[in-house]
Amino acid sequence: MARDKDKRNFALRTQDGDETSVFSGGTPRQAALKAARRLDPATSEDDADPEELRLREKGTHKVHIYEGWAWEEEAPDDKPGWMPGDITKGNVSKEGVEHLDEI
To answer: Count of domains in the chain?
Structure first.
């Protein structure tokens, strides 16, 4: 398991450059998966429409660009009692990295 010092913070950016949320993860993909699960879920993975996710790594000028999508699935049969019947799953596809001139 990664230690806290191995975690990095990534700010979710809007098209106009506002940073609305911060997600942490050991890799940019891990943070993007967390962000994707917050999208409006489709009824299945096949019906999901990808949305662009732009994550700026805090302390750097790098913006990691992903396409992300989310969908709802039925929870597994061996789920714990507190888990709801439907869960949101997400997936991402890396589109590239952009370097900002200034933050």
So the answer is: 1
Which residue type is seen at 89?
K
Using CA atoms, how far apart are residues 85 and 77, in angstroms rounded to an integer? 9
Distances (CA, A) of 5 to 1, 2, 69: 12, 8, 29
The string of DSSP codes covering 52-94 is EEEEEETTSSEEEEEEEEEEEEEPPTT--TTS-SEEEEEEEEE
pTM, 2 dp = 0.87
Could you tell me the residue range of the domain that residue 72 belongs to? Answer: 4-99
pLDDT in tens, 32-68: 999 999 999 999 999 999 999 999 999 999 999 999 9
